[in-house]
Amino acid sequence: MITVGIVGGTGYTGVELLRLLSCHPEVQLRAITSRAEAGRRVDALFPNLRGHVDLCFTDPQDGALERCDVVFFATPHNVAMRSVPALLSAGVRVIDLSADFRIRDAALWETWYGETHACPDLLSEAVYGLPERHRDALRGARLVACPGCYPTAVQLGFMPLLAAGLADPHSLIANAASGVSGAGRQASVANLLSEAGDSFKAYGVAGHRHLPEIRQGLEDSAGEPVTLTFVPHLAPMIRGIHATLYARLNEQGRASDLQSVYESFYADEPFVDVLPAGIYPETRSVRGANICRMTVTVPQGGDIAVVTAVEDNLVKGAAGQAVQCMNIMLGLDERSGLSQPGLLP
Amino acid sequence: MITVGIVGGTGYTGVELLRLLSCHPEVQLRAITSRAEAGRRVDALFPNLRGHVDLCFTDPQDGALERCDVVFFATPHNVAMRSVPALLSAGVRVIDLSADFRIRDAALWETWYGETHACPDLLSEAVYGLPERHRDALRGARLVACPGCYPTAVQLGFMPLLAAGLADPHSLIANAASGVSGAGRQASVANLLSEAGDSFKAYGVAGHRHLPEIRQGLEDSAGEPVTLTFVPHLAPMIRGIHATLYARLNEQGRASDLQSVYESFYADEPFVDVLPAGIYPETRSVRGANICRMTVTVPQGGDIAVVTAVEDNLVKGAAGQAVQCMNIMLGLDERSGLSQPGLLP
Amino acid sequence: MITVGIVGGTGYTGVELLRLLSCHPEVQLRAITSRAEAGRRVDALFPNLRGHVDLCFTDPQDGALERCDVVFFATPHNVAMRSVPALLSAGVRVIDLSADFRIRDAALWETWYGETHACPDLLSEAVYGLPERHRDALRGARLVACPGCYPTAVQLGFMPLLAAGLADPHSLIANAASGVSGAGRQASVANLLSEAGDSFKAYGVAGHRHLPEIRQGLEDSAGEPVTLTFVPHLAPMIRGIHATLYARLNEQGRASDLQSVYESFYADEPFVDVLPAGIYPETRSVRGANICRMTVTVPQGGDIAVVTAVEDNLVKGAAGQAVQCMNIMLGLDERSGLSQPGLLP
Amino acid sequence: MITVGIVGGTGYTGVELLRLLSCHPEVQLRAITSRAEAGRRVDALFPNLRGHVDLCFTDPQDGALERCDVVFFATPHNVAMRSVPALLSAGVRVIDLSADFRIRDAALWETWYGETHACPDLLSEAVYGLPERHRDALRGARLVACPGCYPTAVQLGFMPLLAAGLADPHSLIANAASGVSGAGRQASVANLLSEAGDSFKAYGVAGHRHLPEIRQGLEDSAGEPVTLTFVPHLAPMIRGIHATLYARLNEQGRASDLQSVYESFYADEPFVDVLPAGIYPETRSVRGANICRMTVTVPQGGDIAVVTAVEDNLVKGAAGQAVQCMNIMLGLDERSGLSQPGLLP
Question: Which residues of B fall within a CB distance of 8 Å from D12?
């Protein structure tokens, strides 16, 4: 059995990791840390885990993490980077679900996250945990930087177009809507049911922290610079991200059968599902499941390709993808612990 | 007092007209027709109207409509066009909230609505009921074609840019999300709370009936052909439309202060509210109110303008705008009966 | 015009007072106070009020409140009692929407609210603002204690039974569900959309602060002690309270036509609506409206009467009822400013 | 492997059976029937099942059901009773999730379901599928009648009190709220998101079909007649039932430690979870999980016991409980295929 620790187990990414890992056939949960909740039973905070997780939160400094095979960081940004070097030195593999190791350029990271990076030397070692693009590098990796929720859906949706050079890389627009759980489990007025319920709004239009991460990934796929407009929205639902992606097709793109392009690109992927033409994905079809479903359309025979892609922001957009990365790192069956269908209705 | 009749009072547009008109100081509701519900009290169907509307549904053939000053059609498309000519002949003014008179080109209409138009000769007389564009033509009009819900938000959002020639008219993308009430009060599996709740999806990506209507309006504003990609989405909420609009600025557009352009354009409009830069509108801020709120942004100093605009699809996107048109047609104060703030939270 | 001030205008009761009073034909809003938000425009916090309220929040100590005819307190409990005596001395009438003056027995109040009452001498003067029971005392009152949201629905629902002595006063059960806005606009984890959405729970089963208030009111109606079990629940919606009330009928009760009893009891009440037998009220029928709708049923011909009653917790359960009290206090038309139908759907 | 068929696989109970059985380690799905959808892929109707269920709907008359080991009926009432006798004769075991075999008294059944029962002789053989009460009878049973969703929660909540004779059996009140999925996947106006969203109402107050079923079960537990008032409500959520149960304690009950009574009663039950005193269950804690969580409270030291119990109406209230029954019938591990934690948030 692989022994696993989780740092910052009190947020939504944490509880989702616990839900998935408590059912993983090859994992033993060993430690879940939270300074604020140390000593409290995990299932007192998350009653869905009663009977499934028999641990208490512990202090991150008590030495238990160093004895794990793998440690997940489900912390806000700027936390993992302070602890990761010591864990790596202790021989622990690290999967960071926060933003600390996602951007290779330390200066760019510092611009968006407002702090000096604590271990910029590790940025080049960290493997970006999007298995559909970096599966080989993930095998045996010591440090994985899991993608953000928006970046996962946006990259998966654009990748087939960009990798094949079918669209103008300066025409990209990503219009995305997220459920409120994406904002985390922090007390806030803006995310009260009374505020966010029965309403819809854009936010961060002028610039969202996921923008540089997405751009880096798309440029990797395209092999050239891209220009991207990214507008996130808040939808009155708990889970789910829906990305609506627009790209202007070039001559080759207009001549291509995009349905085939997408189906071929993801033919061997266990966790990407290209829907038949004309069937548009709903976020509820992936509720609780580690999968990204998408459809590609060229409306009215024009030259704009529209990709609509959905994922559960807490699963394929966070905890599920992290488990998928762990499976690959450790040479397990990539699907292990991730085979449940979504919950519909 | 102006005597008013409503045809098709059993849908959401109908109940919203009743809600607004029952409080309108210069209106007397005279007849509400429904073949299926004839004889039933209106407030038995819509309990919010108990104590406010004391009428029963009547048969549309009983002659009452012909004795009204104004008749609203809150019917599905392809209904109003069969009755409007006779009402006009009887001297009644008609405000049609359906699609029957929105598109000037009868052939185009027939392509999208699948039927031969019953009175194509009236298409040129019908005034398109977007007061912010056609206020003068509305004064004294006999027949008004109220815009669809999506077309209202999309046109209002793009108009300042296009009218001033600040954007490439072939670069337009309208990404919009609607509450479920936009689908009407018909029994359907897809719009059950269990299906549409806690989920988000695109629909009609390949082509939605509001597309030709929007295009016609934008071409009027631009004074030239436009190319528009329009993708509607269903959001898990009751009311509200949020339009996120993208346009590539031309040289003049990039040199303009778009905040000023928008504020000036709508400075005298009672029902359009341009928000300060950086404040993005929420649909809940217009719940129940006849207003469109919008923000214009140019992210990252690029050349894409992003306009986010919200309206209540049943008010400024339907019944409220229809009452606004009535006020203008009849020379009343344009705000009469429409001065309530939105319901927040 | 009556000049009005509001203390604590940043919560949901505050914004709802502003919504209603901004449309009240005989009211001029003069001051809205908030220490935390002093200097900020009211409509920056509540965008639905843009164009309707042109004030900024001010400091409560700046003297403006003393110059108003009426001051509403929309504050948490334990605040109003510190300021009310001075305002009354200045000749201002006070309508307190908090709990400070609802319970006549200071010792009982202190047991439930955990503090010494600052002006127990005013408790006997304060009129409990349930017009359906205390209308005469409200005329000319200086100080009104508006009922809580649950207490309004529960008392209105039980009153006809108890006043006529038709039920065992020791058999009362009040099972109630509230929308999340009842918990206020404070940042909290428990009321996040991600926590309270798509879920239902009881809370405060062992004892809720509204219990002694309800019991006091029911004992007034019954003219004798009552035994009440009160269980509140949180429903995944924004507004609305639904009370399901159970009472064991006595012999006289079993012999009565309860439909007539209820209809007669509320025949002259403008803001209580007894529905026809077999039609059960929905909270959405009162969304935004100052009305309590109810139905009485005796299931299966047994001896348990079931009353189901709904109100908008922010309107008839708070701000609307406060305006109704103001109208009565000042001799205005009781319906003034409160005549809007609910927003459905 | 056990071969399984499902009749009526197009509703919510059907899709939930498919979700659970597709992951059950000892089950092979062989047939899913639907006359209306015959020939259509199951995952075209339920996209969450893409990659998990590779079957098409088939006609129930094609003979496949007769070749299964177990057949589940997920049909409306009055359907299973017509087909069950033939299947039993063919040696198939039947688990009926509809109401056809729940009530032992055929005349009583016919009163509530409005039809002559097609095979009243099987009523005495059918085992009522509440494992916590009938586990022994389920072992080896040929025909199981799965309880309704409300009856499961109400019986589990009252059973410890009644079995120990701690409460007046004529004082029982069951106040329950259900998510909208309880109403099924039929097109209807009342269950549209626009109608049922953001609202709360009681229904069936005068008499609901689950009443005789609950009463029968409670009388079995109590060993004497009971008097029950049952009021169901519709809550604006997809899944979940919350039952709030009231009973007047007798002398023995008032002297008992109810927390211990409940904990002892369910100590060995894998799918009933008694919470610590003062912690009230939320429906979201059981979303997607086959478990009933409950709390018992005696408010204010009085003589009314309040039990609050939650379940997922589609899992422990339907499909999950049916799988639990199958496991028991066939001698499998009772927990097989049912070990997933709930989905929170």
Answer: 194
Domain boundaries, chain D: 2-146+318-329, 150-311
Nearest to D177 by CA among D159, D196, D157, D202: D202
pLDDT in tens, C211-242: 999 999 999 999 999 999 999 999 999 999 99
Q: Whose structure tokens read 């422990």?
A: D316
Angstrom distances, CA of residue D2 to CA of D21, D318, D319, D330:
11, 20, 17, 9
pTM above 0.95, yes or no: yes
The fold adopted by the segment(s) D150-311 is Dihydrodipicolinate Reductase; domain 2 (3.30.360)
- Give residue D21's pLDDT: 98
- According to CATH, the topology of domain C2-125 is Rossmann fold (3.40.50)
State yes or no: pLDDT of D272 exceeds 90. yes
Cβ of residue B177 closer than 8 Å to a chain D Cβ: no
Residues of chain C contacting A181 with CB distance shorter than 8 Å: 194
Cα separation, C80 vs C122, in Å, equals 12
ipTM for this prediction? 0.97
User: Tokens at residue C295, please?
Assistant: 């139905």
Rounded Cα–Cα distance for residues D23 and C213 (Å): 52
d(CA B295, CA B259): 8
CATH for D2-146+318-329 is 3.40.50.720
Q: Is the distance from CB of C85 to CB of C122 less than 8 angstroms?
A: yes
Amino acid identity of residue A246, one-letter, is Y
- For A9-75, the DSSP string reads TTSHHHHHHHHHHTT-TTEEEEEEE-TTTTTSBHHHH-GGGTTT---BEE-TTSSTGGGSSEEEE-S
Cα–Cα distance, B266 to B272 (Å, whole number): 6
Would you state the pLDDT for residue D81? 97
pLDDT at C95 over 90: yes
- Non-local (6+) Cβ contacts of A18 within 8 A are A6, A9, A29, A32, A42, A46, A49, A52, A53
We find that the CATH architecture of domain C150-313 is: 2-Layer Sandwich (3.30)
> Is residue A9 very low, low, confident or very high in pLDDT (cuts 50, 70, 90)?
confident
Q: What is the 3-state secondary structure (H, E, C) of D271-301?
A: CEEECCCCCCCEHHHHCCCCCEEEEEECHHH
With CA atoms as reference, report the closest residue to A172 among A109, A232, A108, A215: A215
Min Cα distance B181 → chain C (Å) is 8
By C-alpha distance, which of C290, C309, C325, C311 is closest to C161? C309
> What is the distance between the alpha carbons of residues A199 and B239, in angstroms, rounded to a whole number?
8
What mean pLDDT do residues B39-43 have?
97
8 Å CB contact of D193 and B238: yes
Q: Residue A318 carries which DSSP code?
A: I
pLDDT at C9 > cutoff 90: no
Q: Are B139 and B332 in contact (CB under 8 A)?
A: no
**How many other C-beta atoms lie within 10 A of the C-beta of residue B194?**
26
Could you tell me which chains touch chain A, where touching means 3 or more CB pairs under 8 A? Answer: B, C, D
Q: Which of D111, D205, D311 to mutate to probe the C interface, most C CBs <10 Å?
A: D205
C23 given a catalytic annotation:
no
